Design the sequence.
């Protein structure tokens, strides 16, 4: 029997509520709000309360997919990244960098979000940057 | 306290002990095991209250024979009594260590500061319900005003289900609040007041007045007051104060076994 409580931060939006994950025998079983957290003070919205569900969801992708012959097929990371890069390059070449926009995510870290906007500005060459928590 | 728990773990009286430990600057629930008895030196009572008995219920559902030790305040103990009655936990597998409780009308001093009255915003006092109100005072409003004030509170609901999810005595596999025939889906606020009243009715004979639901409510609905009223009715009719006994509740006696005579309301 192994039961752990693991403190973390909710990844659903930019608020940053403190959550506690309950892990039983290596399985994530439940989420609780952290009472002493300065942001949410023991409260959560419905998404936060069900945070564990998107981690253990069967619908979660475990490998990259590429659309070939009209359907999504599993592929390697190298091929997926190359396909995305080629697609972006082609769009930028034909329509200019401002034809591209980057939507950053609340599910990644602050540092990764910094890299995302850096990628948009320095690599693609556009200021079209926005964040999913601002929608 | 540490020595006692260590002894229990070593003797095999309990397999795990649920208490609190300081982790990353927060007092968090922690599961102490006999494999790591040295952890016990970090055991604290903690000023933040979590429902350790709800965790125990979840663990016991998967590990039926596991013997669980718990740090209990008065509210945890009352919740345990209700969980014993409803066969969610086996009292033979539970061992508790009592610690000082939250300050309340009964106890002036307490280690847990969570239930000290909060400052209530003036708007809430004017058109809503003051969370620190007693049942008697809330009944002083005339019927129409009382209804309007409660509706003001209910319509703030964001349907997070936090009150149910944090509740130590909410253990049903299927919840009426998620039953699409009973409560319409797809809107916020949920159907008021039926959403809150369904839950209130189900708290009759269950609610042990721990206040965790109100604590977890993002919009400060005075749930504790509502459930107190429901349980006042239970006490009046059945002469049963929820959580005080671990033997039986008037709500789980079947047919002929009922010996209590209902009093007229």
Sequence:
């Amino acid at each position: 029997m192994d039961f752990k409580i693991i403190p973390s931060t909710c990844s659903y939006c930019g608020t940053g509520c403190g959550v506690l994950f309950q892990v039983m025998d290596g399985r994530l079983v439940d989420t609780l709000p952290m009472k002493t957290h300065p942001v949410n003070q023991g409260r959560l919205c419905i998404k936060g309360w069900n945070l564990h569900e998107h981690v253990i969801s069967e619908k979660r992708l475990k490998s990259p997919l590429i659309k070939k012959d009209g359907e999504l097929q599993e592929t390697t990371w190298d091929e997926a990244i190359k396909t995305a890069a080629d697609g972006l390059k082609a769009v930028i070449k034909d329509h200019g960098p401002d034809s591209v926009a980057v939507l950053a995510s609340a599910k990644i870290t602050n540092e990764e979000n910094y890299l995302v906007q850096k990628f948009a500005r320095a690599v693609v060459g556009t200021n079209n940057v926005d964040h999913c928590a601002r929608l | 306290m540490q020595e006692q728990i260590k002894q229990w773990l070593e003797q095999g009286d309990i397999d795990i002990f649920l208490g609190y430990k300081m982790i990353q600057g927060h007092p968090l629930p922690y599961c102490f095991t006999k494999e790591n008895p040295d952890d016990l030196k970090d055991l604290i009572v903690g000023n933040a209250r979590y429902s350790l008995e709800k965790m125990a219920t979840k663990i016991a559902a998967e590990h039926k024979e596991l013997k669980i030790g718990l740090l209990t305040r008065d509210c945890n103990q009352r919740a345990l009594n209700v969980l014993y009655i409803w066969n969610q936990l086996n009292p033979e597998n539970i061992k508790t260590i009592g610690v000082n409780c939250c300050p309340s009308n009964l106890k002036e001093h307490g280690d847990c500061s969570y239930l000290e009255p909060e400052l209530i915003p003036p708007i809430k006092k004017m058109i809503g319900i003051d969370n620190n109100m007693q049942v008697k005072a809330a009944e002083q409003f005339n019927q129409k005003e009382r209804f309007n004030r409660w509706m003001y509170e209910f319509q703030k609901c964001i349907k997070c289900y936090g009150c149910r999810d944090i509740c130590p005595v909410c253990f049903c596999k299927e919840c009426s609040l998620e039953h699409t025939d009973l409560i319409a889906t797809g809107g916020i606020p949920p159907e008021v007041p039926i959403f809150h009243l369904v839950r209130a009715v189900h708290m009759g004979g269950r609610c042990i007045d721990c206040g965790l639901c109100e604590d977890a409510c993002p919009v400060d609905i005075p749930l504790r007051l509502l459930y107190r009223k429901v349980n006042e009715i239970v006490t009046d009719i059945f002469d049963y104060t929820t959580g005080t006994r671990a033997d039986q509740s008037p709500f789980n006696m079947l047919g002929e076994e009922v010996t209590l005579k209902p009093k007229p309301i």
Chain B touches chain A at residues 15-16, 23-24, 26-31, 33, 48-50, 55, 58-59, 62-63, 66, 114, 158-162, 165-166, 215-218 (CB under 8 Å). The beta strands of chain B are 16-23, 26-33, 43-44, 68-72, 94-98. The mean pLDDT of chain B is 86. Residues 223-238 of chain B form the longest helix (16 residues).
